[in-house]
Amino acid sequence: MKVTRDTPDQLIIANSPWLIGLMLIIFILIFVGAGLLVMTEEFWIGLLFAGFGGGIGLGAFVAFVSRVQLILDRPTNSVTLRARSLFGFSEVRHALSDLTRAELDSTTESKGGTLYRPALVLTGGMSAGTHPILNAYTNGTSPQRMVAAINTWLEASPS
Questions:
Q1: How far is 11 from 114, CA to CA, in rounded Å?
Q2: CB of 116 within 8 A of CB of 144?
């Protein structure tokens, strides 16, 4: 995730998983290409190879590749969380006045390490509670940077 716009009136944070999307497309093309090559000699084995390998790659692409955008907008008093994937588009809106802060949501992985994701804490309205921005956890520094950027923007007084 990265900050794409940071002004006193608006903060936009976007997550576009280009690298994993590209890697999965290459994975799909390799398996389908190899399956088509094998189909010239052994039709059913090649079809099975292309279908199974390409299907797994496509399933992973659908599950893991989605673009997420968080927009905090003072003039409209809104928090908008947008997500776009192969399944479609979703948008969730909250009042900016209900947003208290951002925090790190954490979990422990099987090897004992800690994984994080950024989350919004809403204290007012019908959506009160903690709302993760992303579905996936990561061990990188991106969640910490996003939480810091959101909290810094919220604490700053508008000009």
A1: 28
A2: yes
- What predicted TM-score, i.e. pTM, was given to this entire model? 0.77
CB atoms within 10 A of CB 105: 19
Rounded CA gap, 140 and 117, in Å? Answer: 9
Burial class of residue 79, CB neighbours in 10 A (0-12, 13-18, 19+): buried
CA 119 to chain centre: 12
State how far the Cα of 87 lies from the Cα of 106, in Å rounded to an integer.
Answer: 27
Per-residue pLDDT tens over the stretch 47-97: 999 999 999 999 988 888 889 999 999 999 999 999 998 888 999 999 999
Q: 129-132 and 78-85 as β-strands: parallel, antiparallel, unpaired? A: unpaired
